[in-house]
Amino acid sequence: MSAPPRKILHVDMDAFYASVEQRDDPSLRGRPVVVAWRGARSVVCAASYEARTFGVRSAMPAIRAERLCPQAVFVPPDFTRYKAVSRQVREIFARHTDLIEPLSLDEAYLDVSQTKTGLPTATATAQAIRAAIREETQLTASAGVAPNKFLAKIASDWRKPDGLFVVRPHQVEAFLAPLPVGRLPGVGKVMEAKLQELGIETVAHLRELGAAELELRFGRWGRRLHELSLGIDHNPVEPERPTLQISSEDTFERDLLLDELEPHIHRLAEKTWDGYGRELERDPERVARTIVLKLKTADFRILTRSLTPVERPTSLEQLTRIACDLRARVPLPADTRYRLVGVGLSGFIDREDVPIAQSDLFERDTAG
């Protein structure tokens, strides 16, 4: 006897950062709002729907956003406020289920196959969650309801903003058939181009090619593509994702020499240490072992240097000192300029597994 279909929600706040700004400042309502610092190196964190009509999108260079929409109101991001609202929203989720997988501050998967509230359907649960978000935060969220995670994520985007779309189990194959193959998870621009060379532009075309042919051409990934084309995805909602790294980074207004980075390392180390403190409050038994320095050169080469000291990092001063010292292990010429620096903590393990004495130095140098 097969298990009953799961009931998965993907809830996505609408233009989250920009909507918080418009909520808190009535003068911004109805206007094109771009959440970003001004400057040649800044990127857009979020854009209101009014700004999106001009082509402004998240992750776009702020200077381009300004050209596309000269009348836009630029607002510097305030992540403290955004995180506070995100916590409110997560508390609403938790009234309905403990199976919550946050993807970012503004979106999450929820498994509502069984709920705390006894609401009769996943659709009713999604409606209740959206209504509570509207009432308690004065913001809107869109939701997708489906038998698995990737379908729910596609569905949540279907009627944005402030929409709800449901894909029932018997509708899955028909729903997917006309979609571009690029809507499937893992199909990026390169894979999409390869599939288009084979005449595959839609999920229906992919399905017609068949599992055997796809596996012959793309190996195990080809078989996975065939499963996705049929709407098959057994990935569970994972509420407890262990922390792998906590980091802070910054892109400069102008490229800097290695010797000029120290004040920026100090500032970023403080932000990282604050984040680590919050992580320890959440899970005091998981501790970091490794300090990481990340650099990006003016020509976009990425380097990381990391140190695992004999004793795990226990102070901001230790984090800052080691991060600064790691600059000495950068093998590039002294006149190399850098556009970005980051400071991180990684190598999380259970506190009881921390070795009594161990000293390892790890290095990684990657082009990116």
Automatic annotation (TrEMBL):
Q: Which PROSITE patterns match?
A: UMUC
Q: Which domain of life is it from?
A: Bacteria
Gene Ontology CC: one annotated term: cytosol
User: Keywords, A to Z?
Assistant: Cytoplasm, DNA damage, DNA repair, DNA replication, DNA-binding, DNA-directed DNA polymerase, Magnesium, Metal-binding, Mutator protein, Nucleotidyltransferase, Transferase
- The EC code for this enzyme is 2.7.7.7
- GO process annotations (BP): DNA repair; DNA-templated DNA replication; error-prone translesion synthesis; SOS response
Gene3D superfamilies on file: 3.30.70.270, 3.40.1170.60, 5' to 3' exonuclease, C-terminal subdomain, DNA polymerase, Y-family, little finger domain
Enzyme type, top EC level: transferase
Catalytic machinery residues: 107
Q: Where is this site: Substrate discrimination?
A: 17
The primary location reported for this protein is cytoplasm
CDD domains named among the record's database cross-references: PolY_Pol_IV_kappa
User: Does the record carry Signal as a key word?
Assistant: no
GO-annotated molecular function: damaged DNA binding; DNA-directed DNA polymerase activity; magnesium ion binding
* Keyword Magnesium set for record: yes
Q: Provide the assembly information.
A: Monomer.
Q: Which family does it belong to?
A: Belongs to the DNA polymerase type-Y family.
UniProt-listed NCBIfam families: PRK02406.1 (NF002677)
Q: What does this protein do?
A: Poorly processive, error-prone DNA polymerase involved in untargeted mutagenesis. Copies undamaged DNA at stalled replication forks, which arise in vivo from mismatched or misaligned primer ends. These misaligned primers can be extended by PolIV. Exhibits no 3'-5' exonuclease (proofreading) activity. May be involved in translesional synthesis, in conjunction with the beta clamp from PolIII.
Query: What is the protein named?
Result: DNA polymerase IV
What is the gene called? dinB
